[in-house]
Amino acid sequence: MIAPALRQTLLAASVLVSLQPGAALADRVTVFAAASMTNALQEIEQLFEADTGHDLVVSLAGSSALARQIQQGAPADVFISANSDWMDALESDGLIEPGTRVDLLGNRIVLVAHGSDAAPSDIGQISPELDLAALLDGGKLAMALIEAVPAGIYGKAALSSLGLWDSVAADVAQTDNVRAALALVATGEAPYGIVYATDAAADEAVVILGVFPEDSHPPIIYPAARVAGREPQAPADFMDFLRSPEARRVFEQQGFTVLDP
C-alpha cells in the first residue's frame, strides 16, 4: 500500500509532467511519401521531432504502391504523392481528409548517366534531335514503372512528346520507384536513366546530361494531405511544419521548387 505522503508526491509529479509543453500532445505521425523525397524527409524528420516532440515515422516508396496500401487500410496519417493522379484516386475514394490537401512541391525530370565521363554533359534541354537510341548503344535506360509510378509516367510522356519513345521503348529497364532507377545508374547496371533532378543531385555517382522541357510532360506537382479517419492533431502539426521556413529551406536545398499556397 502506498503511504499517503508518497501518493501525494507521485500525484504532484504526474501533474507536473502533464503540464510540460508538448508532453500531453506528443504522438506518432506516420507519413507515406514518394521515394524521391528520401533525402529531404530524413532531415525534416529530425527538425520536426525536435520542434514538436512528436515521433515521425516515414514510409518511402513509389506513389502508386503507397496509394494502394492506403486503399487497403494501411495506417498512414499523411500522404505525399509525386503526382496529382494518385492523390485524386484517394480523394475520390473518400480516403483524404477534406480541406487538407495542398500542392506542396514541384520538380524536374532529367536524363542521367553513370559516372562523370560516361557521355557529354552539355546536352542542356533535351530536344527531338537527341539520338537517344544511339546514346544507349544497346545499354538499358532505367526508369520507374512507366504506367504507375509518377517519375516513369512523366518520363514516358516526355519521351513520347519529343518523338523519342518508340526508338528506346525496348531498352527500358523498369523499377518499382525512382530511387531504384537511380540506383541502377549509380551502380552502372544501367548506363542511363530518367529520374527527378532532386534524385540526380543526391547521388555523386551520376551526372545530369540534360533536362526535359517542362511542356513535354504534365506538370510535376507533389500534393500532400491528411488521410481520413486518423487522429487529427499530430498530423495537422506535420502538415503545418511542411509549410514552415525550416522545411522550405530543406526542400530548396534538395532542389525542389516550393509551391506557395
Automatic annotation (TrEMBL):
GO terms for cellular component: outer membrane-bounded periplasmic space; plasma membrane. CDD domains: PBP2_EcModA. It comes from the Bacteria. The keyword Signal applies. Coiled coil: none annotated. It is found in: Cell membrane. Molybdate binds at residues 36, 63, 151, 178, 196. GO terms for biological process: molybdate ion transport. Keywords: Cell membrane, Membrane, Metal-binding, Molybdenum, Signal, Transport, Tungsten. Involved in the transport of molybdenum into the cell. Part of the binding-protein-dependent transport system ModABCD. Belongs to the bacterial solute-binding protein ModA family. This is Molybdate-binding protein ModA. It comes from Roseovarius litoreus. The lineage of its organism: Bacteria, Pseudomonadati, Pseudomonadota, Alphaproteobacteria, Rhodobacterales.
